[in-house]
Amino acid sequence: FDTGKIMSPKLYVIDVSPPVRSVYLAAEALGLNLEYIQLDLFSGEHLQPEFRKINPQHTVPTLVDDDGTIVWDSHAINAYLVSKYGKDDSLYPKDLAKRAVVDQRLHFDSGWAFLGVRNIAEPIIFWGDKTIPEQYKANALKVYDFLERFLDGNTWAAGDHVTIADFALIPNITSLNVLVPIDEVKFPKVRAWMQRSEKLPYYNGGNKKGLDDFVTLIDNRLNP
């Protein structure tokens, strides 16, 4: 857990985590050379005192930049990375009105999409639950419905081009889809957005492997 001078930024991760995959997408899009350090959350490695000194919330992803700057929370990390390393501001616009839309989507991701995944996945993964409560299924449908409305007239989550809002939402929506499948008839814009996302040149490296691991983990928990 060294936070001293390093050759490249370090990112503490576990691949199944949607927030981690969000940062993977940003890093891949930016062409960054990050050093990925896998933490075994299942054995409590993230609870060790050394990691708590870096991130008192002991969450992943956590970034330690090459100058020693420490940032955690995927939304904060992505905003930091694209602001520092981006060739332009397309991924996180400097224009206040455009940035406000991106920020709104990021808060939606944090308060709705990620929470939707966590409320369902955490009891299955850590507590041995075998069923999904109806209220959480209903909440997932609300997430899809809101995103469907956001995409009305927009190609991407916050407008006509990819932003860090998409990087946040892609891992969570694709993971939520594993738990509560998206109805293509009710949510055609969400499905089309997912299909566009899968064609991004950095999708496979950023989201696919971790999503596949997430699918396997959930299946193993539900069907041991």
UniProtKB/TrEMBL annotation:
Domain of life: Eukaryota
GO molecular function: glutathione transferase activity
UniProt GO BP: glutathione metabolic process
Domain GST N-terminal span(s) in chain numbering: 7-89
Residue ranges of domain GST C-terminal in the record: 95-224
Gene3D superfamilies: 1.20.1050.10, Glutaredoxin
Pfam families per UniProt: GST_C, GST_N_3
Subunit structure: Homodimer.
Protein name (Swiss-Prot/TrEMBL): Glutathione S-transferase
Protein species of origin: Photinus pyralis (Common eastern firefly)
